[in-house]
## 1
Amino acid sequence: MWRNWAGSQTCQPAVLADPATRADVAQAVVRAAAAGHVVRVAGAGHSFTDAVVTDGTLLSLRHCNRVLDVDHTTRRIRVEAGITLRELNQVMAENGLAFPNLGDIDAQSIAGATATGTHGTGARLRNLSAALHSIELVTADGTTIEVNAEQEPDIWRAARVGIGALGVVTAVTIQAVPAFTLEAVDRLMAVEEMLGNLDELLAVNDHFQLFTFGHSPLAMTSARNRTDLEPRPLSRAREWVEDELLQNHALRTVCEIGRFAPRANGPLQRLGSRLAGSSHRIDRSDRIFTTPLRVRFVEMEYAIPRRHTAEAVRAVRELARRPEFEVSFPIEVRWVAPDDAYLSPAGGRETCYIALHQYHKLDWKPYFRAAEAIFDSFGGRPHWGKQHFQTAQTLRPRYPEWDSFAAVRRRLDPEGRFANAHVRRVLGEV
């Protein structure tokens, strides 16, 4: 039995394989084809959709997590696809390297994070897959190919955000940057003040994001900027208070109270926002970017054109206040620069990402369906690893390069070896 992190997706595949080497991966794909199985790959299980669910062959790459090469001259690091971001960040730091941008969760595998278009925040910075220099891919017939911007550029633009529909990614080469230190300043702002000054806030900060509760007029903003100051890691006691007590234990308590007494959500959110205060940290970049989050939830996230940020934030805040949805989690808002991966949600446009969460013990579908109608009105594109209700028919008009991706898919997987029900629903038949 396989289960994702949130506990919202499960499956019982006919074959659950743990290949020890990349050659074993190719053999597993060949064996699956001989058995007539669909092949899917489980990363760290942090996606919320049924993208992995199969009754065929499910591959886990947890043992394919080796560091293969570190080139200090080019600042490129080659790793196997199953390595987690947490493991990779540590290796990079030991070699004086870093990702230019990261999201706030580091539990994902590098292949899973890039295949779904995972991102951080920074109006001048692109999503995580843009840091890839090359990709090693096992295709439907067991052949291993290497693609990059010069070698098979069409496959390259498709595979960077491939949703596992083109083959099994077994290794990647990452174009890193020199290690850097970030200064993070978290402070409260009135939501309307923040929205009124948004362009300036995005222009003057390397990384800017916010969290806001539907029932509170305030937002917790986080500005993160490069600094030449020496890192000042928090003491263990303060780190526990900020990361565990406030972000996990307090949030879980609020969620449980809200579950049994929904009318308490409004007062709790207003009180919590006022008490949040401010925070100041200076530390290694990945330690600033990432945050431990242990409260289980289900998530929807949409990428919309940046110019619609204020209107969309107001609309989803109003939605989150509706009592029938019983929302106890904050809304998260981030921004990224355009990129050119065929199915990147930020492809070709300056993008605002808005993420909604629902406590895992509550029904998320009504809230997310209502939110999706709002995002649809702005031409939103869903994060490929998070819940949505779109189909290939509704998604195709939103991606100018949709047919280019489809052509690569037909070329690499003409029989639909990597197409489970989820892939057929969101990408169509081969």
## 2
Amino acid sequence: MKVKPKKTCVSSSQSPAGPAVLGGSDAEWTNSPAVTQILERLPDHPTRFVAQAPGRLDVMGGLTDYTGSLVLNTTTGGHVCVAVQRRTDNDLSIVSVRSPGAEDVASTVIAVSQLYGPNDSLIDAQRGRPLAGEGNGDVARCIVGALVEILRAAGAPRLDGGLSVVVGSKTQEPAGTGWDAALVAAALVAVAGACDVTLDPLDAAAVCQRVENEWLGIPVGIGDAVCVLLGEPNTLAEVRCEPCALSGSIRLPDDLVLVGIDCGMRHPEANLRYSRVRTAAFMGRALIDRIIRHDGSGRLQWDGHLARVSVTDYVGRFRDRIPTKLKGSEYLERFGETGDPLTRIDPEFVYKIRSRTEHHIYEHTRACQFVECLSRAIRSGEDRVLEEAGELMYASHWSYGQRCGLGSVETDMLVSMIRGHGADAEIYGAKITGRGCGGSVAVLMRATERATAAVDDVIKRYQSKTGRVATLLRGSLPGALVSGAQRM
């Protein structure tokens, strides 16, 4: 992995202010309270490397990044910071500062020798996960996984001396904004700086995805990792997944913004629901593959990725031959496993195969249409075209809830209130983001006082009806590789 990180691209945020706001400008992030606080946990004499990674806002396609869809993400203003410093006692020390200004911390100390097995080979995730313990579990697993996987990918020699790692955040881990991916990305870049490893951007994204998949047990695609590593401020990144490729980007004009609203809750079984949706989608993909092999491909152009089955082919050839729902045991008896290494079919669970399958096909089409609408709207300045883009966001939101079962009462309420203001308030579209089941809503709007007032009204009415605290996520920061590791 011998390609230098991308050059930093910095621009100030034009996002509107509002109640309960997280985020802001990307300028001078190294002087932020979060960075100051994590540096205080390290001795001030040897060299320290600090990296930050933003959250991400899934605008279109996010749920489908593991089936080959076009994914459209932008970075948020909140960020995760990681500071790394070399040691001489052959220990790996991991400290997590819970929140800005907080005194409570969680710490983990692991001997560097525990990262290696026979013949000095680096351990795998199955052996490495238990090293994290309980008190600092997810953070420690992120750090250990990032360290092991970057050393493995780079073919680096054995780590000598050890490392001190401190993790802090400007935000309170808003749900649905890719916080896990941001933590892994910041750790990856900071560790690379301390270990003198250079990174190929897409290899780095693959390492991030591997840490999320294998060390954290989250069966996500690569879209989040690409955004938090390579995203540019106020820019919509177009990522074609499976295999991963950056197919372009759309720089938003100063008067158009994407903001998030964290609804203040996430369903306790969100990860399980997400995993079952993924399983059902791969069940559908396997059935489509069987139908094609049985019938012959004919004029069908398909590369094996579910999301890239055309809507016409799906409706005409496959939809009515895919079961609406099927118990896991019956599917296994008739067809066997799906071939997806990150999920397993539960024999006792009834999977809604057809609806979960078609979400991926329709969402890829919507994402492609959204790019066309947004690009045309930016060129022409026509609100009518922005409304068309917004309708695609509303359709995606409906599909999350109705086709995938990943919606929530809270995010439905936010989207309904936003849609009630509509284009008259210069708000054009909204949808649930990320893995769903609560979390955050993405909003496409003008950066005007009228639109800002409308969003403020939505948040206040939502909080009054639900008793939950909703947080406005604004601003946009450069990705971790764009900023690079700062030597301090």
